Amino acid sequence: MQPTTSAGNQRLYFLDWVRILAFFVLIAYHVGMYYVSWGWHVKSPHAGTGPEPFMLLSSPWRLSLLFFVAGAASHFMLHKTAPGAFVRRRSLRLLLPLLFGMLVIVPPQPWLEVVEKLGYADGFVAFMRLYLVGYGGFCQDGCLILPTWNHLWFVAYLWVYTLVLAACTALLGNARIEALARRTAAILKGWKLLVLPALFLAVVRILLADRFPSTHALVDDWFNHATYLPMFLLGALVAGSCPVWERMEGVRWIALGIALAGWAAIVAWYAAPHHEHSAQTMAIWVPIMRCVYTLCAWSAIVAACGFARRHLDRDGPARRYLTDAVFPVYIVHQTLIVVMAHAFKPLNLAPGVEALLLMVLTATGSFALYETVRRLPWARPLFGLAPRARTARLQAATHGQGLAPR
């Protein structure tokens, strides 16, 4: 896949910052999941609806943004290597951490889930024996599927989407992909930049959200695939187009205003007493609100990219360090949250104090693990890190030369 403009050869540092900040938002979001009324692995005794409007600030766009940025990064990797080599490299960097995570990092989450929800008392070792053989008897409003990837579902989906992108590149060829990228960039200008992707996402949500509820189980998650795969492919198509990024920067304030207005409408919608409305009224308003939801989501993505390009398009030691650290931090962060939240319960801490402690300790614990792992050659591949020698060569090659994201 060749770059669509001369900007295709420049490293888009601002996308690294978008990815870094999005993963930090993810940590805060998962801490918040402990305190809201929505289902999660463990729940605070103080859980309720109060924090939910703040959670809705990021829930419409957070994951779509991560897939969009991942697609852009994949574009640049394909620019530097053949599709087959790209698949081999991404498989090693994604599947090994996924399998390691499912066997080592994730199991404390379902263990503590059955301890809290079902009163399981046989200990972690006994639970692991059941976990590894796929025991299906932990049931409450549905049965827990074991083994599980829990929050690492993102890694599994990302691997599948990279296969799709590589297959499209191999089958269509660089010339056709480049032509499609030019047409996409030409279309996404003016009002179309904000409206067309949001309209596509709205159609997907209206047609599929009720038929295919979110499962994160890969094989039956058609609504999520219809949302995240197009976002991933769109990121790959526009990655090398400097005009698209410039347009996002130009409309960043408008996009932010639309996103915030959409968030306010979503909060009001969730707070409304829907049971008082007739089925006919709901049949009108549900599609409207789904359009509002996707307009909010896409506008937030445009705003995030636009503001980042304006203010964060620069390199430095912090960017290089955090770009390397963010994947290991992502792998371990949710297990730390679940384990610490469970451990804190006997202390009866005030919810605000407890939440702050969870965020601070999760961040410090995650980075402490990264500092350990990056010094151990045998552990680096298990957390998605390249061998140290190759990392040093890549940093030496890219520093100051403006190469595209890995």
TrEMBL record:
Name of one Pfam family that matches: Acyl_transf_3
Domain of life: Bacteria
Keyword terms of this UniProt record: Membrane, Transmembrane, Transmembrane helix
Transmembrane segments: 20-41, 61-79, 91-108, 154-174, 186-208, 228-246, 253-272, 284-309, 321-343, 349-370
Keyword Transmembrane helix on entry: yes
Annotated Acyltransferase domain residues: 13-370
Coiled coil: none
Entry keyword Membrane: yes
UniProt GO MF annotations: acyltransferase activity, transferring groups other than amino-acyl groups
Name used for this protein in its record: Acyltransferase 3 domain-containing protein
Protein's organism: Massilia aurea
Source species taxonomy: Bacteria, Pseudomonadati, Pseudomonadota, Betaproteobacteria, Burkholderiales
